[in-house]
Amino acid sequence: MSTRTVPRPAGLVRAGVVAVAVLASSALGLPSAVAAPAVVIPLTPPEVLVVPYAVENTGPMTPDMADYPETITPVAVEWTGSLVVQLPPLLDGAGMEVSLELMATEEGAVTREYGTTLLAPDTLTVTDIGSGAYSVALPADDTVNGPFGRLTFDGVSSTETGIEVLAPFDYFLEFTGAGGAVANVAPQILAIAQVPCPLSSMTECPAIPVDAGEQFGITVPPTSLLRALGLGTLDDMMLGLEKLDGDGMATGEETIMLTDDPTLVTVSDPYNATVTLPASTPGGTYGLTLVQATGTTGSLSVTFGKLAVTGVPAPVAPAAPRIVNAGLRSHTGWGEEARPAPDRGLSPLVAVGAGMMLVAGAGAAVALRRRSVRD
Fold first, then answer.
1. pLDDT of residue 70
2. Most buried residue, 136, 230, 324, 346, by most Cβ within 10 Å?
3. pLDDT-based confidence at 28, cuts 50/70/90?
4. Which of 10, 8, 7, 6 is nearest to 361 (CA)?
5. pTM above 0.85, yes or no
């Protein structure tokens, strides 16, 4: 079996989603072509948070979102036509609510709303056509409202235990005429996970002990929920280390991008990789962030964790006053949605994610574009 090195990525992912996970070691081995390291981390999360997004509006997610456009492309539809949405694998729309808001301009105020929970003449009809596809019957032109619309799918769930759909998702539409045309869309997903502890765990998982200069493995077994979602391949991954303090918070030191050096990360097949920790890595606790893309389809998975590194002594820095951020905010609009977050506990390590590899710029892009429509 041949091996190949991971190419140097263009840069870090822009800031957006905040999440942290702890990865665990395992005795699972890599393929025979690669010498099995002493520690192998299986990406088998017990829980995965899934955020669907309208790839037709925003373009696909990639590990490097540094140059993402800050505009959206409307999906062209027709009055009295229909829109068919194909949900991603393991997602279920049986209990979802769908609404359509109309406005005169892309950033204009909503002037009329249709919905599956509203009475006639404002009822929106949605039909389950099988295999995870749903057809939305679009209204007739009343000559007053539109031609722009925001179609929102709320209450999407999963058929698989351990997968939670985190938020509603929107499609931005433009009505270009009248007729029976069918527009077909297929939202992609951002998946956030940690192993072995569930995301809802309030107990901190132990860090994985690794010596500086030593190797560790990463594997995505066939039983992983990431693979069930069509994710988890390692070919185009980005892998970074972020120094943590005694409270598990990012210290602000420069991120060590392991995938920036092709000699440090070797992928033996799409689901197995070997990583060499630089010998110069100072001792201490590090957040480990792994971003995995799925090629041209546009979905992305993000897994976080911790390593306990035995290495060169860490420099002793003078104590600095701690700055407490009461709530993460940014110009992207992420975290500024009016919709409440699910009523669930998250691991206390979640707060570290913002300082680690600056993941999910695509999520920030989605929020930015959504905000540009709603404001």
1. 61
2. 136
3. very low
4. 10
5. no
